Amino acid sequence: MPDLAELRAAYELAKSQCGADWKSDAAANAIFAFATMSVRFLRTDCSPIDLVSRVPGKQYVSFTRKGVVARPANRALFVKDERRLAKMWSALRKGKIDRDSFAQVSYTIALAPCLVLELFDRGNKKAPATYFECFIGHLFASSFGVNPQKRAVLPVQGRSVQMTMDFLFDLGKGRYSLHLAVKMSTRERVVQAWAHQRLLDAAYGADRYKGIMVLFSETKLDSRSREVIEICVPDQWLAYQSLLAKMDRIYYFDTPYRYQQLTEQFPDVIRIKPFGEFFSEKETVALR
Amino acid sequence: MPDLAELRAAYELAKSQCGADWKSDAAANAIFAFATMSVRFLRTDCSPIDLVSRVPGKQYVSFTRKGVVARPANRALFVKDERRLAKMWSALRKGKIDRDSFAQVSYTIALAPCLVLELFDRGNKKAPATYFECFIGHLFASSFGVNPQKRAVLPVQGRSVQMTMDFLFDLGKGRYSLHLAVKMSTRERVVQAWAHQRLLDAAYGADRYKGIMVLFSETKLDSRSREVIEICVPDQWLAYQSLLAKMDRIYYFDTPYRYQQLTEQFPDVIRIKPFGEFFSEKETVALR
After folding, report:
1. What is the pLDDT of residues A65-103, one digit of tens each?
2. Contact B243 A198 (CB under 8 A)
3. What is the distance in angstroms between the Cα of B246 and the nearest Cα belonging to chain A?
4. CA A256 to chain centroid
5. What is the CATH number that goes with domain A145-285?
6. Could you state, in order of their start, the residue ranges of all structural domains in chain B?
7. What is the rounded CA–CA span in Å between residue B262 and residue B244?
8. How far is it, in rounded angstroms, from Cα B86 to Cα B17?
9. What is the ipTM of this complex?
């Protein structure tokens, strides 16, 4: 079974391979190696626990080790078996995977390393966020065959102002550029994604960058009662989307119930959908 | 000399009096009592230390107690003598104070309680921020004779969406309403203030709410070398101000050197100025 040093090395390798070439096979392999090592570690060194779901239609489990309980995992999406995960990953890499399998394998590869990082160091919020950003950056880069930039250049008052954003993809002639914002969960800081989109729209016109957000979930675990709830602010999102800037698509690995309802109520204003759908629509996302 | 329980009670009283009536004499008295108790505590129970300023033209000191060093205080602005502070406060309350004295008394009343809260509990960032917000909310409310709201109501897609902002002042006919954003220092989260202003402008037209920011400082203390620097991102601010929304005035208790330069370079785009000036121009801030 993997020890802390091995897991840490796997994390560092995934980061550095993405830094070197997001779209590369080396990045894919490093991410999958870290994820599969994490799934094995959760199975062999941690204890599964059932959580009490207060979210309609969803069941959650988690893992515990030395008194620490990791964040919730959606039972229908999390794959505990490394061999099954390996088969699905191989299908994904070949582009021959159905939507449900894509949803499961991407959910598990996104989450398993975060669970492990959390069990080793509960206070370190940055490492899970960094890994998640690596995985999403890689998925988009390999899907489009283009590496992202992290800096926008904005023409402002005769200056070229550089501003760090999550990811910008220039997909070439005939396609939109993509502004991709990535977060494990939102809460207060999410307004930044809409503000960045607004900056890009104001600088380059609303027709240049399509805004896409990829978010993991909005679950919150009460550590005493072990109840899982989802924290959502649908009214705020409606205001951001209507008054600040328009995000073209908002993908969730585990779509919150209330955001699904919001999308059904206002289909022309906001599109919040399972990340699983990215796989089948990725060809059309950037089409003009 | 005051003990922890007394200081905590003074903090709670300042909070609750502001909550009950921001503009009241009771709020003013509670704030001043907490501040003067803090200044006394710093003098009697803590040791002053000199810091190494790397900021052109400014000197910084701080206080230490039980191995904890509090944030930097600008030597030219911090008043250590309670009797002098009391005289200045009395002049301020009567509206008969010169600009330099206003700058000193407001700087000291804003900072002293934060230093004390920090020396007691370094990890608690929220209490200093809450107190600072109380003080600024009170100063604006008593200056205009109007209590603020904390919630904007935005008409969005046929709904009335409520959104929490720092402060909104409705000053009545013939005057602008004020959107007042308050922060001890900025860093990442400041984009929220511009985003809120943009939401208000988009919902009500750019002519309804004047955006005002009140910030304390951007100093950063290196705890080992005891060097003080200022962290500024002038290019980002220029982009926010040009592409996101326009803040009418940005006040600092301790104006960062580089933001002063930015204002001199782009006087038509951004106005960053010492909070001391608020006292002499408050009558005109909201005039149409």
Report:
1. 999 999 999 999 999 999 999 999 999 999 899 999 999
2. yes
3. 13
4. 14
5. 3.40.91.80
6. 4-143, 145-285
7. 18
8. 20
9. 0.91
